[in-house]
Write a structure and sequence with these properties.
alpha/beta, globular, histone deacetylase activity, Arginase, Chain A, 7-stranded parallel beta sheet, acetoin catabolism, His_deacetylse_dom, Ureohydrolase_dom_sf
């Protein structure tokens, strides 16, 4: 029997720094770990130090030409192609080493689960889900999610479910396994007609023998806790139960929050906390308790990400925090120096009620239309009734 949860972390992961005022600033990770420690969430937890992914690990997902370009980019300047040197993916010193370490951290977390040393594991620095086989994209150099999944498949894991709750479509992971029936990818995201990367329609369902193993739930701008969770529960538990994964991998981007500056969904920290608890329940009921959690997006660096991911750590460790918990003064004193007049939260709640009503069919809500479209696209491929709301 594995331990409760393995936490993979070292301050060296903060070297994945895209520079200056780039939205993916590593301070969000630093503030998360400081908040979790200050609240006692990590008391008695032995944090595991990551090592870099090997070339063999990365080549399971990425092309040799892309790895060569990443290595060469800091010296070659801005003409290397492969999505490098753009506004989203600026070149920085020791870029290959920093990105390989993030992937290595996700493999280290996966190792704990595959070996049986832990039932759950987390790498908050991971979740870089947009990188493709031969190019960087969306702040992501190497796709640690796909690298960890490919590593687990190599170790003999037969069925892996990847569940992405980032506000942006999990396009890189879907592309990596679109024709692989061993991997189910599920993504809840803002509708692709309204947000980059413009993919993730309900009609994207996988190909060949993997028909039905890509599941996409596009959500209209403004979707809040109740509608988001109704969509989640109307689709995800049924397809996971049908697929029967041996490991559940979740990308837990915090950018579906109403304050995120790069997107337009309207979840709250309370809704995110409830979602993490839903993920825990699904891991237990559908994947034998095996749960690999990764970070992801989230660009409200001071007000949202630290609180959301502290709740995630607490959920993984079965140390759930009362939403009314006060944010500690020592954390506030540290954060205020970097926040540059951004008002800081004083408690672990947004004061919202994240409850939802079960889906019973299409109403005037555009969320219910998305639910219908996804159910009709994939449910029959798993022997499920797309109309019966009990499925």
């Amino acid at each position: 029997m594995g331990s409760q949860c393995a936490v993979v972390w070292d301050e060296s992961v903060l070297d994945y720094d895209l520079g200056g005022h780039h939205p993916l600033h590593p301070i969000r990770l630093d503030l998360t770990m400081r908040l979790a420690r200050s609240l006692g969430v990590l008391d008695g937890v032995e944090v595991l130090e990551p090592g870099p992914a090997t070339e063999e690990d990365l080549l399971r997902v990425h092309t040799p030409e892309f790895l060569e370009a990443v290595r060469a980019a800091p010296l070659a300047g801005w003409e290397v192609g492969h999505g490098l040197g753009t506004e989203d993916n600026p070149i920085f010193d020791r870029m290959h080493e920093a990105a390989a370490l993030i992937s290595g951290a996700s493999i280290r977390a996966a190792e704990q689960i595959v070996s049986g040393r832990a039932d759950r594991a987390v790498n908050l620095a991971g979740g870089l889900h947009h990188a493709m086989a031969d190019r960087a994209a969306g702040f992501c150099i190497y796709n640690d999610c796909s690298v960890a999944i490919a590593w687990m498949l190599e170790q003999g894991v037969e069925r892996i479910a990847y569940l992405d709750i980032d506000v942006h479509h999990g396009d890189g992971v879907q592309a990596a396994f679109y024709d692989d029936p061993r991997v189910m990818t599920i993504s809840l995201h803002q509708h692709p007609l309204t947000l980059w990367p413009g993919t993730g329609f309900s009609t994207e369902i996988g190909s060949g023998a993997a028909d039905g193993t890509a599941v996409n739930i596009p959500l209209p701008p403004g979707t809040g806790d109740a509608d988001w969770r109704r969509a989640f529960h109307a689709v995800v538990p049924s397809v996971l139960a049908a697929f029967r994964p041996q490991v559940l991998v979740t990308q837990c981007g915090a950018d579906a929050h109403r304050e995120d500056p790069l997107a337009d969904l309207s979840k709250t920290v309370d809704g995110q906390r409830a979602t993490y608890q839903d993920l825990r329940e699904l891991a237990d009921s559908c994947a034998g308790g095996k749960w690999l959690a990764l970070g992801g997006g989230g660009y409200s660096l001071f007000r949202v990400v630290p609180r959301a991911w502290t709740h995630l750590l607490a959920t993984l460790l079965d140390r759930d925090l009362d939403p009314e918990t006060t944010v500690p003064e020592d954390w506030m004193a540290h954060a205020v120096r970097a926040a540059q007049n951004v008002p800081l939260p004083t408690s672990m709640t947004d004061g919202a009620d994240p409850s939802y009503e079960r889906w019973t069919g299409v109403t005037a809500s555009s969320v219910d239309t998305s639910i219908r479209d996804t159910r009709h696209a994939v449910f029959p491929l798993h022997g499920l009734d797309p109309v019966d709301s009990r499925d």
